[in-house]
Design goal:
Number of strands: 0
Order of helices and strands: HHH
Number of domains: 1
Number of helices: 3
Largest sheet: none
Helix content: 55-70%
Structural class: mainly alpha
Radius of gyration: 12 Å
Distance between the termini: 21 Å
Length: 69
């Protein structure tokens, strides 16, 4: 199982909500995959208020669920 994201300013629940919202957003708006990382990074910055965003967190947010597509 992938390592769960951690951050001092947000809980796992908040990250899970971010991930679900991100996935819905890219699906509904048909955001090209090459724009996912920068957009996920911006989303995390907005929600957490931190300038630094752990790249592992971004990867977790943009990761496709098994069986997706």
């Amino acid at each position: 199982m992938p390592k769960q994201p951690t951050n001092d300013n947000a809980s796992y629940f908040e990250f899970d909500v971010m991930r679900e919202a991100f996935n819905r957003w890219v699906d509904e708006d048909k955001v090209p995959e090459d724009q996912w990382r920068p957009r996920a990074t911006k989303l995390v910055r907005i929600v957490t208020g931190d300038d630094y965003v752990d790249p592992n967190l971004v990867e977790w947010i943009i990761r496709k669920s098994p069986g997706a597509d």
